[in-house]
Amino acid sequence: MSKRAKALFLSLLSLVVSLSFAGSAIAASTGRELNMPQGVTEVSQAAYDIHMIMVWVCTVIGVGVFGFMFYVMYAHRKSRGAVAENFHENLVVELLWTIVPAIILIVMAVPATTALMKVYNTENPDIDIKVTGYQWKWQYEYVGEGVKFMSELNTSSDEIYGRAPKGEHYLREVTQPLVIPAGKKVRFLITGNDVIHSWWVPDFGVKRDAVPGLFTSAWAKTDQPGIYVGECTELCGLGHAFMPVVVEVKEEAEYNEWLAGKKAEAAEYASTIGKTWTFDELMVRGEEVYTRSCASCHQADGKGIPGVFPALKGSPIALGPPEGHIGILINGVAGTSMQSFADQLSEVDIAAVVHYERNAWGNDVGDVVQPVDVLNYKQNQ
Amino acid sequence: MAHGPAKGIGRWLFTTNHKDIGTLYLWFSFAMFLLGGFFAMVIRAELFQPGMQLVKPEFFNQMTTMHGLVMVFGAIMPAFVGLANWMIPMMIGAPDMALPRMNNLSFWILPFAFAILTSTLFMDGGGPNFGWTFYAPLSTTYAPDSVNYFIFAMHIMGASSIMGSINIIATVMNMRAPGMTYMKMPLFVWTWVITAFLLVAVMPVLAGAVTMMLMDINFGTSFFNAAGGGDPVLFQHVFWFFGHPEVYIIILPAFGVVSQIIPTFSRKPLFGYSSMVYATAAIAFLSFIVWAHHMFTVGMPIAGELYFMYATMLIAVPTGVKVFNWITTMYKGSLTFETPMLFSIAFVILFTFGGFTGLMLSIAAADMQYHDTYFVVAHFHYVMVAGAVFSGTAAIYYWLPKWCGKMYNETMGQVQFWVAFVGFNIAFMPQHFLGLAGMPRRYADYGLQFADWNMVSSVGAFIYGGAQLMLLFNVVMTIRNGKPVSDPKVWEGAEGLEWTVPTPAPYHTFATPPTVK
Amino acid sequence: MSTESSYYVPEQSKLPIITAAGMGLIAYGAATWVLGGTNMIFLVGMLIMAAVMYKWWSTVIDENMRGLASHQLKHSYVLGMLWFIFSEVMFFAAFFGALFYVRVIVNSWLGGEAAFGMFDNTPTDAAVANNALLWPGYETQWPVMVTPDQAANGAAAQFSGPEQSMSFPGWDRLLQWLPLWNTLVLLTSSFTVHIAHTGLKNHDRKKFVTWLGITVALGVIFLILQAEEYIEAYQHMGLTLESGIYGTTFFMLTGFHGAHVTLGTVMLLIAFLRSLKGHFTHDDQFGFEAAAWYWHFVDVVWVGLFIFVYVLA
Ligand code: HEA
Ligand code: HEA
Ligand code: CUA
Ligand SMILES: [Cu+2]
Predict the structure, then answer these.
(1) What backbone torsions phi and psi does residue B127 show, to the nearest 5 degrees?
(2) Active site residue B293
(3) The pTM is what?
(4) Structural domain includes residue A265
(5) What is the CA(B51)–ligand 3 centre distance, in A?
(6) Which range has the worst mean pLDDT, A239-248, A270-279, B326-335, C203-212?
(7) Ligand closest to the CA atom of residue B456
(8) Helices B339-362 and B374-383, interaxial angle, to 10°?
(9) What's the pLDDT score for residue A25?
């Protein structure tokens, strides 16, 4: 390449770069795929607005700064015969480019502050929901209503590992979404059970860390019913990418109906706990529970991951008396990621999964573990 | 004093010569760069498509963690220490570093530390899988056993950094040639002393953080456990008190390099030398008081959030001063665009771009959306890869002729630059969009809506990786059969003591100190 | 700035890489050891370190005696020591910072109170919820005698606080309060090391050696008293590393301080032994001065400890 052609190439490319910066700013302001969502709450709107202000401020400064730079690169090239001058100080411009950016920042601090005040305005909520992060699922508790449930990923591992085609809602579907009413101020009290997770719903502008042992709070109020999907955004171990947040906003009446249904469900369940299950019924249900709640650590084949998660296949606990096994599920193992499942699984599910583990993968204990056994264990504690 | 290097391998193992040690540091860091880059390639290959294809999630987390750790502690920091070793004595007219034996010790700790760190990958339960920020309790109660090896590796790595920095401080304060007053020192030296102050101040805090982890894991203390009255967030405060200055530790020497190169190829003195020095000091000072901008979502009281937001925004001012000074240095110069200059110009542009996204991140309300998404990943690769790595590459092309007396092939240099520049932007520009659209970081797998940009990003990353192999090739070719140069100045516009000694630089420079007018 | 015409750049040396290998072994060995494995690797590393450090110091001393060390090199050593002490200051800063954070901020939050009480007395929603939903019954207190775990879970708690704290026991029991004695011992020792220094500067070798010896003795006394205090804590007060955040911060701060006193005492002891051999002169005393600076630093840390760990409760 000749010197001249090279220089031309250089300036052209620079132009392309600067245009693409400006272009991406513009693209960011239009395309939903590329930009932060505006969302459906006051908070998400505030975040979006301040985000756009920043994008534009930076774009303008950037175009100015880079524009000047490209001009210099074009005009003061040696190949064009430029001869270097020798100045190296100028108090006035140096002061100017210290003070002007400072002023710009001070001005920007104003909307930034008001936006943050909105984020922090958690007072006087209509509903309190306790959100607890578990490895690797969420628990939602309607404080004071006696309703709580787990919300887990509902995408099969076949889809994840490419043994089945990926569905439309790949990694964006859960067993039970959080349901909240439209038009009410909902306050989320967020905490963690084991490690730090982070509960994020982009369309609400809510992202708060779920710190074990301490609460953080956030709020949302929206008039738009619909389904909003978010994610866990704090690295929490191997299932970090597999614990989505799904929130369904329902009209108030529908919500009340739903809540009443939930309460009834809980009452009904309590009455069926005494039923005696057959060996095979328990195996089927147990496998379901196992795949959903246990396989992420102990693996589908029960062999665990050496050094991290013990194998259940052939484990003395699984082969020993059922009480020990039930006990581990109910109490967890303190200081390890083997959490207590007492709050997460019903007696039936605990019985089923224990039964399954005792009789799957060649663990042929052969006995049957009934929900009552679990209930008795709990009561004897 | 011996006059030439010793023979054989002993030269490298037992050396006290700043140039030898600089060379060791540079090769070591390059090896680590390839290793860390290889981990990045695993990450990008897995993220090429949605679904888990190549690795399991638990291994993916180890890759992310090791990539961050190896790049930051193994590649970038030692690279700049290597440059400091080579250049600072030559720039200030000193015969060597102030404490030559300790200098060798600082280096040799690193291979041991990284051998321990990488060996964890082969242990039961795998290596560190909790991110390079190793937040408790994922890194304490829930960590694999190998975390203990990680902790002690960090300890000795920190000791190495502290000794290295003390050496640099002592050299600069005590070894300048007569007449080399502070305000005559080249900017690279200035940025490095300030960096060394930062290191001496914050590496011990990192040591404190890992020590607290060690105690929580093995001895029942409750620093990071609310049940005992501690707080997991305490870890983050301690970590970021180290971690934020750390990112300026990475970038300040890079500023120094660029401040040497731009004047050379503009054939014009650096504009605003003294304001550059003050700006560097201001950045260093501010870096101590902004750490919690990494923690806007942990639920700090609003007063804390506002304070950290304002303080962080302020950093744009001194950084802006630097950017404006570089551009004004070019203004009315006589510019040529050799490879080092190309990398430096790309540095200024892309770093500034990364700085802008940094400023956006500092706005707490917006950061609630950006935090822990790929937007942050894009931000820090713009400042660290297009910042530190680009300037490091510029430094290699710029000083290589001085070091080995051979000139690199300009065409190959320029080709490498363009491949790197294009590959870099294809790899990391789309990550901004991914982040804004909602893709969290440290995800082994993602929803289908993110598929397109991830694929683009991976392709770019492979191109950029290829550019690094070209760099290696260029350097090796130059050393083996580059065109010899003997002009002490090498570059027409170069100024400074290091360009007064013969090319290639003799084993011992300045046995008697030169006098600086 | 350089004033002399030549600077001593040592020949090649095997010491650094052996030291590095020793450190590597210590790191690897320590990890193996805490994991319940062999402690041999660690011990071998320690042995190598001890040997190589001995050799290294003697080399430096020897170089000094042979007159190789110029003023400029000595100044490099001085700078090295000062910045090393600064790095130690920062190490302690991390632990003091942790203490302030848990005492002032976390403790209030866990008890459902406002964290920044001095600016705003209304607790945040999150703080209220902490106390209402997570740790019912926990009350903000320092020293933490009842941990949040204990308050909420009673006997099932994993963390239970100590039965007694190390704080000021009341005027009537002042004289049985060990920390006070420790403070007196350390403050005195800072003073005695200073006297030794003046002795050295005034060519009074006897004064120098005597007072240096006294300083070493005081350091040892301090360590004995501290061991006494720990034994008391573990055996009679239920105060251990495991007793919640109070035990944690107490032992970590005083423990690291104690480790530094040990190191300082060793440094002074070496200086003492060297002084018996007549190594220091009024204008060449870096080895001693370095130890003395270190000693003053350790002393200042203690004052901080005394105030924030023992007195202000
Ligand atoms: C080399 C390293 C480097 C550098 C230099 C920077 C520079 C900056 N960074 Fe960055 N940052 C990182 C490395 C770096 N960062 C890393 C590694 C992380 C992630 C860590 C992790 O979580 O793993 C991170 C994360 C990070 C966060 C946390 C994000 C989150 O996790 O949610 C924030 C938030 O405030 C931030 C802000 C900034 C700011 C304001 C600057 C400023 O210094 C930028 C200043 C520069 C400019 C602004 C451009 C030039 C100025 C002008 C041209 C003047 C005029 C301009 C205006 C007035 C607008 N950074
Ligand atoms: C200065 C430090 C530095 C540098 C230079 C880089 C360089 C690169 N990084 Fe980065 N990165 C970090 C520091 C750095 N990184 C940090 C701190 C994190 C956060 C970690 C965490 O979350 O804890 C991170 C995280 C991070 C992520 C997010 C991971 C996640 O969240 O799960 C990604 C994903 O794309 C990524 C990609 C890359 C790529 C493609 C490069 C490329 O620039 C690398 C180019 C180099 C090479 C490729 C080597 C040369 C070539 C070979 C060895 C041969 C093999 C090559 C081929 C097969 C082509 N990095
Ligand atoms: Cu839970 Cu990430
Ligand atoms: Cu930061």
Answers:
(1) -85, -170
(2) yes
(3) 0.92
(4) no
(5) 18
(6) A270-279
(7) 2
(8) 140
(9) 53
- Same-domain check for residues A110 and A135: no
Question: A22 versus A267: which is more confidently predicted?
Answer: A267
Which conformational region is residue A9 in: left (phi greater than 0), alpha (psi within -120 to 50 degrees), or beta?
Answer: alpha
What's the pLDDT band for B99 if we cut at 50, 70, 90? very high
CATH number for the domain spanning C135: value is: 1.20.120.80
User: What is the reported pLDDT for A263?
Assistant: 87
Question: Given this model, what pLDDT does residue B3 score?
Answer: 62
Least CB–CB distance from A195: residue in B142, B227, B305: B142
Degrees, nearest 5: CA angle C134-C137-C140: 95
- For atom 30 of ligand 2, the residue with the nearest CA is B442
Q: Is the pLDDT of residue A1 over 50?
A: no
Per-residue pLDDT reduced to its tens digit, B467-496: 999 999 999 999 998 999 988 889 988 989
H or E element at residue A144: none
Q: Tell me what pLDDT residue C2 has.
A: 42
Q: Does C102 touch chain B (CB under 8 A)?
A: yes
* A261 assigned to some structural domain: no
3-state DSSP assignment of residue B392: helix
Q: Up-side HSE of residue B270: CA atoms within 13 Å toward CB?
A: 26
Same domain flag for C159 and C91? yes
> Averaged over A48-57, what is the pLDDT?
94
Q: Number of structural domains, chain C?
A: 2
- Cα–Cα distances (Å) from A137 to A259, A354, B145, C9, C45, in that order, read 21, 20, 24, 62, 45
Q: Which residues line ligand 3 (CB under 6 A)?
A: A 133, 136, 197, 232, 234-236, 240, 243
State pLDDT tens for residues C21-70.
Answer: 999 999 999 999 999 889 999 999 999 999 999 999 888 888 888 877 78
Distance between CA atoms of residues A244 and A215, nearest Å: 20
Q: What is the DSSP string of A334-369?
A: TTSS----TTTS-HHHHHHHHHHHHHSTT-------
Q: Least CB-CB distance to B204: which of C75, C90, C107?
A: C90
CB contact under 8 A, C27 and B156: yes
Minimal Cα distance from A118: which residue of B? B365
pLDDT tens track for A16-32: 555 555 555 555 544 44
Listed residue (A177, A114, A110) closest to A140, CA to CA: A177
Q: What percent of chain B is predicted at pLDDT more than 70?
A: 99
Claim to verify: residue A9 and residue A115 sit in the same structural domain: yes
Answer yes or no: do C79 and C45 share one domain: no
Q: In angstroms, what is the span from residue B356 Cα to ligand 4's centroid?
A: 13
Q: Give dist(CA B253, CA B391) in Å, integer.
A: 9
Whole-number Å distance between alpha carbons of C18 and B423: 43
Single residue among C21, C46, C69 that ends a domain in this structure: C69
Closest CA to ligand 1's atom 43? B315
- Interface subset of B 293-332, CB within 8 angstroms of C: 299, 301, 303-304
What is the distance in angstroms between the Cα of B172 and the nearest Cα belonging to chain A?
Answer: 25
| Beta strand B406-407 pairing with A226-232 | unpaired
Q: Cβ–Cβ of A306/B334 closer than 8 Å?
A: no
B407 in ligand 1 pocket by Cβ < 6 Å? no
Q: What residue in C sits closest to B204 (Cα-Cα)?
A: C91
| B300-307 average pLDDT score | 91
Find the range with the poorest average confidence among A58-72, A149-163, A249-263, C270-284: C270-284
Which atom, in ligand 3's list, is nearest to the CA of A197?
1
Closest chain A C-alpha to B33 CA, distance in angstroms: 24
Domains of chain B: 9-499 (1.20.210.10)
- For residues C108 and C245, membership in a common domain is answered with yes
pLDDT, position B2 = 47
Pocket of ligand 1 contains residue A107 by CB under 6 Å: no
Which of the ligands is closest to the CA of residue B316? 1
CB contact under 8 A, C245 and B178: no
Which residue among C15, C34, C94 sits closest to B218, beta carbon to beta carbon?
Answer: C34
State the pLDDT confidence band at B426, using cuts at 50, 70 and 90.
very high
Q: Which domain holds residue C49?
A: 1-69
